[in-house]
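Our platform keeps sequence and structure together, in a single record for each protein. Because each token names a local backbone shape, the row as a whole describes the fold. One such record is reproduced below, unchanged from the form in which we store it:
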Amino acid sequence: MSARKIIIDTDPGQDDAVAILLALASPEEIDVLGITAVAGNVPLTLTSKNARIVCELAGKPDTKVYEGCDRPMGRELVTAEHVHGKTGLNGPVLPAPIMKVEDQHAVNFIIDTLRAHDAGTVTLCPLGPLTNIGSAFEKAPDIIEKVQEIVLMGGAYFEVGNITPAAEFNIYVDPQAADIVFKSGAPIVVMPLDVTHKALVTKPRNDAFRNLGTKVGIAVAEMTDFFERFDKEKYGSDGAPLHDPCVTAYLIQPELFSGRRINVEIETQSELTMGMTVADWWSVTGRAPNAIFIGDIDADGFFSLLAERLSRL
């Protein structure tokens, strides 16, 4: 079976970095056509820089990185330096990238790439706010039917919110873009907090990364050492959830995950619940299902996959 062609849309972020590393370490299953940066965890200049830092860390400097939208479609940008640090990749000391950003805007790259490929052959993998994807769909609605699948990290139901009482960060940052994506009709798989909070980097799991003894393994362990301090304090958990690598792990071993096909709507009006993913888990609304909402993960299998693939880099 040929590798799945994907575009990674991202706002790195330590967990985004691990998701990118997992994809770049898995060429048999994943063909990364390009990485598109969006403002989110930190502003666009830093997410673009961080994406290139991660590609060089992986030894994949030929990966194409494109800069996208520097603010949400209809709101001011909200960032998360309180979680990820001022650089977005606090933890390891990594060199500034030598790679250059591609000249083309990320939104145009997404549009042109989908138009250039046969329908159903390119998967979009958003790891941050959905601004680039929503903007592409709004600008070129003809590309929607070309999308094989959208596998995204965002939203929550049972775990409610992590940036407001009702909303998960990625959806909250740009609910207007998320609304466009969820109403698009494209096939969607959602990795919400409900599943990512079960992918905890405990000390033994982080030691496994560090014990790889490689530049990548040590950097990932140092990223998580920094990243987990926030979640341990907030949730009282044994470690930090690795949110975004769930997306790329799903592409490689979907059997690690389980969920159900439901209707998901995005709140865009109420400031009280702005960005809430209204997930009809119990099918009480009668609205047609529009997404597979993942609810559970084989965490041991997930971390075994991560350690094995990262050892390749």
